[in-house]
Write a structure and sequence with these properties.
heterodimer, A: about 625 residues, alpha+beta, four-stranded antiparallel sheet, 16 helices, about 20% strand, B: about 260 residues, five-stranded mixed sheet, 7 strands, about 15% strand, elongated, EC 1.3.5.1 (chain A), flavoprotein (chain A), oxidoreductase (chain A), Succ_Dhase_FrdA_Gneg (chain A)
Amino acid sequence: MQTHQYDVVIVGAGGAGMRAALEASGRARTAVISKLYPTRSHTGAAQGGMCAALANVEEDNWEWHTFDTVKGGDYLVDQDAAEVMAKEAIDAVLDLEHMGLPFNRTPEGKIDQRRFGGHTRNHGEAAVRRACYAADRTGHMILQTLYQNCVKQNVEFYNEFYVLDLIVDHDLSAGHVPEGEEVNATGVVAYDLATGEIHVFQAKSIVFATGGAGKIFKTTSNAHTLTGDGMALALRRGFPLEDMEFFQFHPTGLAGLGILLSEAARGEGAILRNSEGERFMERYAPTIKDLAPRDIVARSMANEVREGRGCGPNKDYVLLDLTHLEPAHIDAKLPDITEFARTYLGVEPYTEPVPVYPTAHYAMGGIPTNIQAEVLRNDQDVVKGLYAAGECACVSVHGSNRLGTNSLLDINVFGKRAGRAAAEYALTAEFHDLPEDPTARVVAELEAMRSRPDGERVADLRKALQETMDRNAQVFRTGESLTEALDDVRALQKRYRNVSVQDKGRMFNTDLLEALELGFLLDIAEVTVVAALNRKESRGGHFREDFPKRDDVNYMKHTMIYRRPLAQEGEAAEVFDGSDEYFSHSEEFDDYQVVLGSKPVTVTRYQPMERKY
Amino acid sequence: MTALADRPAATDAEPKAGAIPSFDVTLRIRRYLPESSHGTESYWDEFTVTVHGTDRVLDALHQIKWDHDGSLTFRRSCAHGVCGSDAMRINGRNRLACKTLLKDVNPDKPITIEPIKGLPVVKDLVVDMEPFFASYREIMPFLVTDGHTPTKERLQSAEDRARFDDTTKCILCAACTSSCPVFWNDGQYFGPAAIVNAHRFIFDSRDEGAAQRLEILNDKEGVWRCRTTFNCTEACPRGIEVTKAIQEVKRAMITRAF
């Protein structure tokens, strides 16, 4: 075991983690721990753009952007956070330009902007050009630019180190925190993939920027490595996760594969068509049609397929038509995604429409934070020294449905805030003592998996999980389908306890890591389904066929979901919001229970309205 | 990971209408498992799996790892050619496993899979990437500017932006550098990827660090080692004209025009 001490430890080297590192490393001694080489992070797969009301090509302002974000999120957005994001978007884009990001340019040499789903002029009048972009590889450019600047600033990286535990001075998953006591995050335990050695990082501040959990689903745009690690670690230590039932299904995944084709295609004029050749979005969103927010487009597509107007031999996808666009325009604005269609489906987008179907894309929920990026341990108190930003966090700027481009914005705005806040706190704080053997839990788990001679195979369990989630918790959900998913997840959790790996070695044991990642996935799927079962309404990305309407009276609240010990005999279970009958659900598992609570939505300017486009 | 249809069972005699036919493919993989009984000797291992018309080499590797041999080790993440994790030698050519369809690499014969060359092998297809990234870091891969930062964006014409567009596409997968015979023989050579990333800044109209970068690349291990074999251009999974970029850097060094 090796031990390290840093003022700030950042976990994750995608956009949010590196943006945080650029802020923190100039102020305090900082290390970034990443399970991948930084440039491998999935920020690099983002395509379309990053919105900011620069008004470079037409009239725009941050207040319209705030409104679109709130409405796009079906009013579950915390409006103070959305306002921060839309205001700071402008500097976030300029920061990146100053760091060297090669944005596409207008004829005058300014940053060019294009249309994107749900982004409108004057509160929904028409689509507005707000997305700053670099061809259809904006995320790639952001990731490269941030890494380049980390190289410039000599940021210290621990690459291919997997964080497997979060050390806290009160284990909330084991019980209550005595009144008046603070909870402090004190370090992390990491596994060095190259050697198999365990490292302990003691830190004054820790920033989680660990990304999403798309691999709970089978059809997903997410990388193999997006397994919800940070979210699951927070949950296991007894911290809540917020709004986990809201998962975004991106409308245009390559059919059958899930590889993302950017919304920028529709921003540049591409049209969705059904088997009759009809531009069906005209029926679902008469004003902005194909540029409606993703939840609406994804549902409309799934509905077309259900009603028999799907395309192909199995009538199980719709078509994205770019054939009316000039090939030169496609090459200039959408080169990568058209190449994906050629490489993976053998389809030539100049002349043939591309088969597409919704693909699991983005977790709106995550580790709850306030607008300073401090992690919450309940609906109001913060964990001292713990911060989160990016997809693993829920601040909540995306509410129940994220608008396209707002994730690249989120990582830059809240990554910067998290890095700055973490460093400033570290400069005033002292190190806290670590427990006697901080690695005990991790070592026991690793050794059990490695030494179990024969047991369940990781691939079988993961496949079963992904299949039940696709079947039962995708675009359309019902109480029945979700119950089935929960039963399946429970059964898989049991089988997981007997998981074993074939590779018993120490060096570069990816077999072992996949087993650990599966554990994270199961935990995330479990709370996703429990939260989805509890929310008996339809809002944004969460659509319940048995409760198809939004219910602001009972559900205009954030879900907070916790892991707690089973109630002992004669002892009442810990209850959150006991007065709130709609968020008083709990599910008992074999050795813990999952308990629901809620958190109010912050409303500043915009009262909920019916969401029409 | 199937396209457009569920994977039919391998035993299906008659594929259903619209289903994509499956076929068997053999992968001949260069193994290196220093902790195993093989010690530090590398060896060939063969696996035959049933795959689909649209499956990629990565799908076959996953099938082997997940269903046959959990110790088979390789890096991968995004699985669609943008993260740069899974560059490897496939039938003797550097490619990304996630971007190479099995049907396109003559699946009638065993497909050979080896780690990329010129970097120390750690385990199976995993190599030590540190020397590669060290070269990258040396060429100052970041925008260098003098004077104060403007309050708004720096202006750049669309033409000036287009000047270095090709080299911004680099994903640092090392396919080019590890295809270069000069790099195989001399690991000190900066290699194509580092030069591509220097090019990306040298020809950026906003940058003022070109002279310093050219000084670094004028080193005996710099651009002059390039023998213009075009292996790098052929290897680049992003279609970057790598050799051309290296030539442009050489020319800039002589003419000091950039």
